[in-house]
Amino acid sequence: MNASPRSTPQPRALAFAMTNSLGSATRSKPGPRVSPTESLTSKPCMACSDTAAGAPTGVARLACALGLCAAATTGDTKTLNHGTTLATLVLRGLAIRIGANKPVTTEQRRDLWDAHGVIVDDLASRVLVLNLSAGGDGLGEWLTDARARGVPFYVTLQQLIAMPVVPAVAAEPTVHVCENPAVLRRAAADLGPRSRPLICTEGQPSTAFHRLAAAITANGGRLRYHGDFDWPGIAIANSVIRRHNATPWRLSAGDYLEAVREDADHVKLSGPPQPTPWDPALADAMAAAARAVYEESVADPLMADLR
């Protein structure tokens, strides 16, 4: 006799069950509200713990890929993809459970999954690093070796999870952060192993970036952030500064006005204006000039700081 097809619960019922199961990894009983990014990837995925291949009953793996979690709970690897009814309901439920706002951006959705032990894509999530030594087997050794040679090194989220590192920031606590890989590429070309530690978000910061940044600050390091003088770049700056207590790096109104005078591209600002709480005059100056200045065009003073 053939086995009967696996029945699939209605999305709302399934979302409720998954929210309770995933949420039990974050908080097993009522308690104070926590940030969805308070402890990235430190909680196990309870939703698929019993069905993970090779996992003993009731024993959760440290983290689970989103597709595997979906397959283990629904039999379909795509039911938790962004935009599906189930993914929307589960994410809303998880946000409510920990007292967070409804996730509306890719980063917020990624962080909320991550905080509950579900990794959206641990290989595609990466961060570009220059001259950051670290302790730890494997990845820590690779980063230290790359610093000795002054060469850029890509670090994936999978590596950060599988081979945790302790950034060596005791002697040199400041780690600079840039938005564009062209800046890091120039630092590697011009300064090589003489450059101060530099990591790059490559636009919107990834989970891998946030995890490495959190490791830097947890071990006594400080981040200095620089990015594009346009509204999306300012939004990224706000995110990094707020989330990691970073300090702005040449992101003042004076820096912008000097760059505008020297910039010949005359690219117009676009998108909704963003606040610059570290220097309110910067937002005013950008709105008045209505011109974007990209990070690559102001690389000279950044290189001087990295020497």
Order of helices and strands: HEHHHEEEHEHEEHEHEHEHEHEH
3D shape: globular
Report the end-to-end length measured between terminal Cα atoms: 74 Å
Helix content: 40-55%
How would you write the strand order of the largest sheet? 5-3-8-7-9-10
Describe the structure.
- With 307 residues, the protein is of the alpha/beta class.
- It has two domains: 11-119, no CATH class; 126-306, Dna Topoisomerase Vi A Subunit, Chain: A, domain 2.
- It is built from twelve helices and twelve strands.
- Strands 5-3-8-7-9-10 form a six-stranded mixed sheet, with helices on both faces. Strands 1-2 form a two-stranded parallel ribbon.
- α9 (231-244) links the parallel β9 (222-225) and β10 (247-248).
- The radius of gyration is 22 Å and the shape is globular.
Considering the chains and any ligands shown, give keywords for the structure:
single chain; 307 residues; alpha/beta; Dna Topoisomerase Vi A Subunit, Chain: A, domain 2; 2 domains; 6-stranded mixed beta sheet; two-stranded parallel sheet; 12 helices; 11% strand; globular; disordered N terminus
